[in-house]
Amino acid sequence: MAGHELRDLSGKLVNVTPHPTLLLGFPEYREPARRLAAAAGLGYAEVEVHRFPDGESRVRLPPGLGERVILCRSLDHPNDKLIELALAASAARELGVRHLTLVAPYLCYMRQDKAFNPGEAISQPIIGELLATWVDELVTVDPHLHRVATLEEAIPVRRAHCLTAAPLMADFLARELDAPVIIGPDEEAKQWVAAIATRAGLDYRIGDKRRSGDREVEVAFSAPPPAGRNLVLVDDIASTGRTLEAAVALLGATHPASISVLVTHALFLEGTLARLRQAGVSNVWSTDSIPHPSNRLALAPLLAEALSLPSGDRRKTEG
Length: 319
Ligand code: R5P
What we know:
Layout: E1 4-7, E2 13-16, E3 21-25, H1 30-40, E4 43-46, E5 48-51, E6 57-60, E7 68-72, H2 78-94, E8 99-103, H3 123-134, E9 137-141, H4 151-154, E10 159-163, H5 166-176, E11 181-184, H6 190-200, E12 204-206, E13 208-213, E14 216-220, E15 230-238, H7 242-252, E16 258-266, H8 272-278, E17 283-287, E18 295-297, H9 300-306
Parallel strand pairs: 3-4, 3-7, 7-8, 8-9, 9-10, 11-12, 11-15, 15-16, 16-17, 17-18
Antiparallel strand pairs: 1-2, 5-6, 13-14
Helix pairs in contact: 1-9, 5-6
The protein binds ribose-5-phosphate.
């Protein structure tokens, strides 16, 4: 592929050979994106993001983009990130990129999948349509799909990869704890809890959750776990942590050997972690879909497998 001259970020002219496929990270998601590039054998470069004092964003793409580009950014705290993604995708098209993949291990706005009250916007399909306008392919992990069966229904991209961290979690728990009982706080968690329990040959229980507000959650267990066991609460998302806290309060009364928490997406807002520790939780673990001190399971190998690039596109070393 012929090289050409471009200005680098300091304005200097450099001779650039376009990469067949480059993975572009964003500053706040640098480490997981670099791990993914390394696992997939792709070159890594970064989108420069500048936030102006008035709250607007400027994004700048690195030189040397080829026809295929993978944008890698988790969409927690999403409003600014979505706008920046739109700007980056549009700039990439301007620069001749023909195939854009978004790897967003955490996908935002998936929980508002119906109008829970009259007049509410149904965020899931609205944001889904936007994402599908910007990118051709999407890779994500354990998206909150409750009322739709497939990821494509929510995000109508040409190709959608809906991955699950359940096998990683099952193997992790088998190494960490002796015969734990897996606990899902609500029916929606059953898909992950059952998959983990089946793979690891473990027992599980599912609770019944009622949420009456952002921070008002009640959980009940019609069949509590037996006493004296290691319990692991598993959920897709820990946001305010109220779901986990409500479940921990009940499970503590069953005299367990220990209570641990394992989630895919560690938002853990508003001092959740400290409150869980105070409530007697021994371990809080998560995947690295969102950077957080509880991250213990790297998603890079799983994500790399899904990046089904034509042969020849994978590079041997990180660029
Ligand atoms: C909702 O159904 C999800 O699966 C989680 O249970 C929920 O998002 C957790 O939210 P929070 O941590 O705010 O209770």
